[in-house]
Design goal:
Blueprint (H helix, E strand, L loop, with lengths): L2 H8 L7 H13 L2 H12 L4 H15 L3 H9 L7 H18 L5 H8 L4 H10 L13 H9 L7 H15 L3 H8 L7 H10 L1 H10 L1
Protein name: DNA alkylation repair enzyme
InterPro entries: ARM-type_fold, DNA_alkylation
Organism: Barnesiella viscericola DSM 18177
Length: about 210
């Protein structure tokens, strides 16, 4: 299929992500990074969310080496109001980290986490789930816990939910590590308490099963 045919197909599918990922792979396999970058900028202006999702995946491919594509993801895509587009932003961020190598990507991860805009931060916290299934963080789980815990009192509930769920995931493999972190939290802060309740959920369920 050519690009027009690919777009005509993806707009007929309302739910799911795999058809978008497959379409992006097909396009990226047939065109250069420069051509994909130009196409992704054009597609992102489309009013149809499926087309913008396709743009975001292409930007992820290109953003492994192209800093302009990476900046576009951070500055423009993160402002898109469609939640499906934000899910693709998270997937694209993880793809970039994977291709660069998670250890090499540590400065990028820190930069996006420090951005302050909720969708940028969540692209990291949600994109790298489950964090300790990723190379480097599998061997250095404490670094994942530290990265995430810095946002336990984030002003955005959207971010705090992602952080709490990510820590809950980590607690399944590294319960003591997460428990040690959680015991240091000040639950008098309602924002922290919200994140804590999500993060501790698996640990509490495990404790109940053990009784």
């Amino acid at each position: 299929m050519n690009i027009e045919e690919i777009i005509a197909y993806i707009v007929t599918v309302e739910n799911g992500f795999q058809h978008i990922l497959d379409a992006a792979h097909q396009i990226h396999s047939s065109y250069s990074d420069e051509e994909c970058y130009a196409l992704s900028l054009e597609l992102f202006e489309n009013q149809v969310y499926q087309v913008r999702m396709l743009s975001v995946v292409l930007l992820g491919y290109v953003g492994v080496e192209n800093e302009k594509a990476l900046s576009f993801l951070k500055e423009r895509v993160s402002r898109d109001e469609n939640w499906r587009v934000q899910e693709m932003l998270a997937k694209s961020f993880d793809f970039i980290c994977k291709e660069r190598g998670y250890e090499r990507a540590l400065p990028l991860i820190a930069e996006w986490l420090a951005d302050g805009y909720p969708n940028v931060v969540r692209a990291v916290t949600e994109g790298l789930r489950i964090w300790t299934s990723r190379p480097y963080f599998k061997e250095h789980p404490l670094e994942a816990v530290v990265f995430l815990s810095k946002h336990k009192a984030d002003s955005s509930e959207y971010v705090r939910k992602s952080v709490g769920n990510a820590l809950r995931d980590i607690s399944k493999k590294f319960p003591q590590l997460v428990l040690d972190e959680l015991t240091s939290w000040d639950q008098d802060d309602p924002k922290v308490r919200y994140t804590y309740r999500l993060a501790v959920k698996h640990l509490l369920e495990k404790e109940k099963r053990g009784k």
